[in-house]
Structures are given as structure tokens and as C-alpha cells.
Amino acid sequence: MSWGFLRDLLSGVNNYSTGIGRIWVAVVFIFRLLVYIVVAENIWKYEQDEFECNIKQPGCENVCFDHFFPISHIRLWALQLIMVSTPSLLVVFHVAYRENREKHHNQKLYRSPGQIDSGLLCTYLISLILKTGFEIVFLFLFYKLYNGFKVPRLVKCDVRPCPNTVDCYISKATEKMIFLYFLVATSCLCIVLNLSELSYLLFKYSIKCYLKRYVEKHQ
């Protein structure tokens, strides 16, 4: 598939983000999307073809592969990238709504349609919460589906139609585990950035409201 739409989406959101949000976009684009396309996709491309078991029983190897890898790593990573990026569409849609509203009324209704304030701030905060939630859910899925963040060289399988316990071997297990750790680490970094940006915006908005009430009180 083409990842151009995701690149364009991230570039568009970058125009309305805070400094921390721009760092998040850079991390997603450079350390996740590019690494996924250039490296990780090639490592896991032939994972089923390179999965070997020491038995020729028809169907045994396929069943064992399905047992240990219920969902392909590469497809799960692709789904993760899409899900953590799409909440940013909320911000893009909100800005587009503001611009369309100004065009419809033929007058200036906002200081800047892309300025993070009032309603757009709520939309931005919701998008941050959704992105953080998706990251946590996918980390949990990786942990549960693959018995922790591990890629063993040897797995033992006794699932029917295998007649007995057979040994199955995963190719390039060390290399796959290194990139699995790398992608998990970047996912954790994105969670930290999202929470930092969320805290920053809430703190900034709280200070702004406090100063506004303070000025109104003394006036």
C-alpha cells in the first residue's frame, strides 16, 4: 500500500501542533514510518515461508505458525501506525470547519482558524487522549499475543494435526527481536510525548483562565 496519505496527514497536522506535537510528528515519520517501510517490512516479509518445523505432516507447519503468530507483526504495526495517526484528523477537520464557517459568513470569526484555543483546544486534547489510548492498547496486544516482547529461535508445537510435539524454528529471530524492541521503544516515546503535550496544554490553559479571573476580579 502507499503511505503517502499518512505522510500528507502528518504534514497537515504539523501546521497546527505545539512544539511537542511537532516532535511527535517527527518521531512517527522518521523513527516509525520510515523504519517500518525501509527495514521492518523487509525483515518480516517472508515470515511464514521462513518458518520451519522438523516434520512433514501436511498442515502441521501452517497450524503451528498460526498458533504462535495469530496476527502478522507487519500487519499489526501497519494498523497501529494508522490508528495512532487518524485521531489527528479531528484537528484537521475542526480547522477546515472553522475556515468553511468564515467563508460562509464572509467575515473574520476567529483570530486564526488553526490557533489552539476554546473549541479547537478540546478537539486537540481529545485527539491526544485517543492517540495515547491506541498506543497503550497496541502495546498490550503485542505483549499478550507474542508472550511478551520476545522472538524465540525455537518454539515447540503440539497443535493438531501434528502427531506429537514438534520443534519449529523462526528465522532471524535476534534481528526481529531488536527491531521489535526498537518499535516498542518508539511507541513508548510517543506515549510520553502525548502525555507531555497534554499536560502542557492543560497547564497553559489553567494559567490562562486563572490570570483572566484574577484580572476580572481586580477590575
TrEMBL record:
Organism superkingdom: Eukaryota
Gene3D superfamilies registered for this protein in UniProt: Gap junction channel protein cysteine-rich domain
One Gene Ontology cellular component annotation held by this UniProt entry: connexin complex
Annotated keywords: Cell membrane, Membrane, Transmembrane, Transmembrane helix
Transmembrane segments: 21-39, 77-97, 118-143, 178-203
Membrane topology of the entry: Multi-pass membrane protein
Occurrences of domain Connexin N-terminal (ranges): 42-75
Compartment list: Cell membrane
Record GO biological process: cell-cell signaling
Protein name: CXB7 protein
